[in-house]
């Protein structure tokens, strides 16, 4: 069975530890990458900068309250309105 690649986007270290522990206990074969803010998550997803060789995730666990760009900024496109 192939490992599921998960991108965990979380700025709270305690929540990162709890999530990693939960997956370890679940016995699900995973490869988990962690980013700490919205900007780093976007760099990971678009394979920019230090994440240029990042593997595409099968699943994204996304915190909504993040520094720089919040979770909504990552998943919802900005819609410009014209007056």
From TrEMBL:
Example GO BP: phosphorelay signal transduction system
Signal peptide range: none
InterPro entries hit by this protein: CheY-like_superfamily (IPR011006), Sig_transdc_resp-reg_receiver (IPR001789), TCS_response_regulator (IPR052893)
Segments forming domain Response regulatory: 5-83
Positions of modified residues (4-aspartylphosphate): 63
Gene3D superfamilies according to UniProt: 3.40.50.2300
UniProt keyword annotations, A-Z: Phosphoprotein
Domain of life: Bacteria
PANTHER family tied to this protein: RESPONSE REGULATOR RCP1, RESPONSE REGULATOR RCP1-RELATED
Protein's recorded name: Response regulator receiver domain-containing protein
Originating organism: Belliella pelovolcani
């Amino acid at each position: 069975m192939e490992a599921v690649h998960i991108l965990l986007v979380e700025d709270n270290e305690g929540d990162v530890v709890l999530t990693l522990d939960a997956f370890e206990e679940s016995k699900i074969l995973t490869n988990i990458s962690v980013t700490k803010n919205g900007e780093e998550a976007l760099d990971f997803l678009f394979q920019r900068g230090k994440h240029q060789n990042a593997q595409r995730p099968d699943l994204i666990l996304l915190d909504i309250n993040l520094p720089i760009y919040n979770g909504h900024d990552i998943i919802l496109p900005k819609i410009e309105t014209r007056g």
